[in-house]
C-alpha cells in the first residue's frame, strides 16, 4: 500500500500524529521498531494526562493505539 505520510515512532506523539493525519484525510502509517507505546508502555502510573487523572502507561497506550488505528495503519 502507498502512504502519503510515514510517522516514525508509536509513542504518544506518534499516535497523536496518526490520529490527526487520518482525520485530515491523509493516508498515514505509524511505524515503530519495537512495537507501539514507546517508553510510556513501561510507566506504572501516568498522572494528569488529559482525560485521565491516573492511568498505567500500558492502559493509556492501548487506548491510544485503538483510537489511532481507526484513522491510520499501525
From TrEMBL:
Q: GO molecular function terms here? A: oxidoreductase activity
Q: Which SUPFAM superfamilies match?
A: FAD/NAD(P)-binding domain
Q: Does the keyword Oxidoreductase apply?
A: yes
* Domain annotation FAD/NAD(P)-binding: ranges: 4-67
Q: Which UniProt keywords apply?
A: Flavoprotein, Oxidoreductase
> InterPro entries annotated for this entry?
FAD/NAD-bd_sf, FAD/NAD-binding_dom, Ferredoxin-NADP_redctase_2
User: By what name is this protein known?
Assistant: FAD/NAD(P)-binding domain-containing protein
**Protein's organism:** marine sediment metagenome
